[in-house]
Amino acid sequence: MLPIEDVVRLGFIGVSQGCAYGLIALGFVLIYKATEVVNFAHGEFMMFGGFAVLTFSEGFGLGFWPGLIVACLAMGTAGYLVDSLIMRRIIGQSQASIFILTVAFGFILRSAAGMIWGWSPLSLDTPFDGETTLAGVTLGTDRLAIIATTAVLCTALYMFFGRSRTGIAMQASSQNQLAAYYMGIPVRRLVSLVWAIAAIIATVAGAVMAPVTQLETNVGFIGIKALAGAIVGGFGSIPGTLLGCMLIGVIEPFADYFFPAIKGVSAYIVMLVVLFIRPEGLIVQTYRKKV
Amino acid sequence: MSSLVVENLSIEFGGVHAVDEVSFAVEPGETFAIIGPNGAGKSTIFNLISRIYEPTNGSMHYGERDLLDVPAHKVIDLGIARTFQNIDLFEQATVLQNLLVGRHRRMSRNLFRDFLFIAGARAREREHRRKVEDIIDLMEIAHYRDQKIADLPYGARKNVELARALCSEPSLLLLDEPASGLNQEETDDVSFWLDDIKHDLGVTIVMVEHDMGLVGRVADRVMAINDGKLLAIGTPDEVRNDPAVQQAYLGTAA
Amino acid sequence: MQTVFKTSYDQDINLLTKTGEYIRVSIVILMMLAAPLFVDVYYLGELGLLLVYVIAGIGLMILTGFTGQVSFGHAAFLGIGAYSHSILMTAGLPFPVSVVLTVALTGIIGMLLGRSASKMHGFYLAVATLAFLIIIETIIGEWTDMTGGYAGYAVPELEMFGFYFAEVWHQYYLYLGFALFVIWGAANLLRSPTGRSFLAVRDSELSARSLGINVEWIKIQSFGISAAITGLAGVLLAHYLAYLSPETFGVLESLKLLLMIVVGGLGSIAGAIFGAIFVSLLPVAISILRDFLPGVVGEQAGLEPMLFGLIIVIFVIFEPEGINGRWKKLLHFFETFPYYRKSSFVRQKSYLKTERMR
Lengths: 291, 254, 358
Known about the structure:
The complex is a heterotrimer of chains A (291), B (254) and C (358).
Chain A: H1 4-35, H2 42-59, H3 64-86, H4 95-117, E1 131-134, E2 137-140, H5 141-163, H6 165-175, H7 177-182, H8 187-213, H9 222-233, H10 238-258, H11 266-277
Antiparallel strand pairs in A: 1-2
Chain B: E1 4-13, E2 16-26, E3 31-35, H1 42-49, E4 57-62, E5 65-66, E6 80-82, H2 95-102, H3 111-116, H4 121-139, H5 154-167, E7 172-176, H6 184-199, E8 204-208, H7 212-218, E9 221-226, E10 229-234, H8 236-240, H9 243-250
Parallel strand pairs in B: 3-8, 3-9, 6-7, 7-8
Antiparallel strand pairs in B: 1-2, 1-4, 4-5, 9-10
Helix pairs in contact in B: 2-5, 4-5
Chain C: H1 10-13, H2 19-38, H3 41-66, H4 74-90, H5 95-117, H6 122-142, H7 144-147, E1 153-154, E2 159-160, E3 163-164, H8 168-190, H9 193-203, H10 205-210, H11 215-241, E4 243-244, H12 251-264, H13 269-292, H14 295-298, H15 303-318, H16 322-335
């Protein structure tokens, strides 16, 4: 048996990892709900966002927080443009084409990042170094920061979609684009805005993940695990997504500990098992097609 | 020939009774129309008969067969074919391919035999092709034969969808708004075809339709429903003059 | 457009109808047959690899292009095919037996995956197949006793009834034979009830079901035949590579297959062939391009994936029907010269087809 301290330590790592997956998965779900597109390059958005923070905060010497804000603005603009210049033009094409298109974005971003920042890992100075002792347990500040960021961002998004005019309009257009359009809601602009928000969340995720993973071109593959978590949870709803990501995050360190041979694969096994038993994920969102 | 008997059919979507205790029977060879305002549950009845939805209550029989024992893809084996309200064709395939899929029920299919195209594959294709060609003549869609559905105008798509349903040689045809979106001339064509289908092919027709002119011309009997509940069944004239039906269409007159 | 006057139903059943088609296909086949006479050994080997990708591309095309099920995991079948064939050959089985067993094995695994995937749709399926691939890759890597793990596995020599396919052109003809067989088979599928059922499931599951098609079973069959053909490609790839390692059959290989059929043109056999030619030529083109670009750009390691990505973006936006679509337009231009009008191929406006309410 595992000593209790190790259980707590692995559990804590799991929770923070789950939060990280959840943070990334948020971007997938937002874009999916708005457009039914799964942006397979979202992990690369995160990777690129992390590098952007490095450039603005250290390259331009703005410091971490101002650098983060500028990077968010830049990436948000990029996200907006990706939708309004590219995604908008391919509506209605076959799924395979759209999937491969977003995968292609990933290729481009990864190569671009490699060309700009090089292929070896870089580190980002964040205010989250060192360790914090909470209730007698010593925990990594970087991982605490991930948990806190996820909590803050989720609350913010919740408020945004529940309270603000723009947020409510976004919800409306995701439920029925045509009706929203007839109501005078600028659906297309809102969809682009959703892409911008997703890109901003990705940038924040990239920044808080940097102390744990370092900045590296291949970090984007985490996106696929986040996607697996979102699918386990049921994808349609944000609480479901977070639950699924948390599940995968917590299972992972234990699975890696007990079955080192299949290190890193447990998330996918969990996902396939869940899909086999419940093809719609743990929390089912029912929709009915009108025929 | 079998008759369609529906008893106490009900379905609930999240507490809403989309269809509520509806009973009716369609006799072989007749043309039966279902009318009602939007959202009355007309298409839902079709979707229940074709087993896309599972009813919460009630029974449906076609001849001897209990429809509730039949999975959706076997409904057509009983001879029940249908069209859809929003035209549901195979968009990226040609008209000919669509119609040949309509023959599916009558075709034997085997992956390996088809891969190697052996054991009389050509002869079978020819034979089914002949059948399809008869329907093409009947529906006058010969000039569209090799076109992709995606390139067809709306009216032609409607005809192709009807033709596709006919290719299965059904005994009962469920038509969901056969005249919606068509102009007067095209609607007249539809009424002739429905006549041909009924008399020449001997097919029983159940249709959902808004165009009362068409219903009056082709239907032997009409059923009116509103809010999922049955209002009246009878000849077109009887139903038209029914006070409950008039109220449902004109709103509650004070 | 060249009008074909139809005098018999066979004209629609035959694989080739127009005179031009006959001539073009005959020329291509003759050139492929004659290739060993005038192509040097290195390029003949590359041509063999191209044929392997044609086979794999058709395998994936049947699933994704015809049946509409997107798979991100087809490299797994390539890997399973390559490894199981090599292992069976090492165990002393003759080549034909090993090929048949391997194809059957990949087909069955494909059907099992299809069985669990038949209830999913859209991107669930894509991600599930991706997860399947990652798991298979890990298993190949970790099952050291069987596969040699990350150290690799030497593929036995290609030998049939005492005859060694020692020369490159021996192998080339073997590959060509298999490729022609697979192309012919896939074309047969398309003109028979099974192929039409695939198309029906791709375009509307609802209609397909109402016309008597057992949608789940069709998906399982499509997965099966697709995996079996890809497994066959894996067998041939094993002999081309002569040495297998798990990384060969990773996510990138899968994406390459998908890229192939999208760029080639989804939904047609010609698309798979064009796509295979495209991915085979691209690295060559890129290496030539490198020489022309200024050193700083040309020497970048990321140039190849970058161009891959850009080309996909350009194709998806400007020519969704892929190279095959371009090719058809070009043919049309020459057939109707000088009457070609741009409007002959105006794209219909496309709309988002929601999958939410399935």
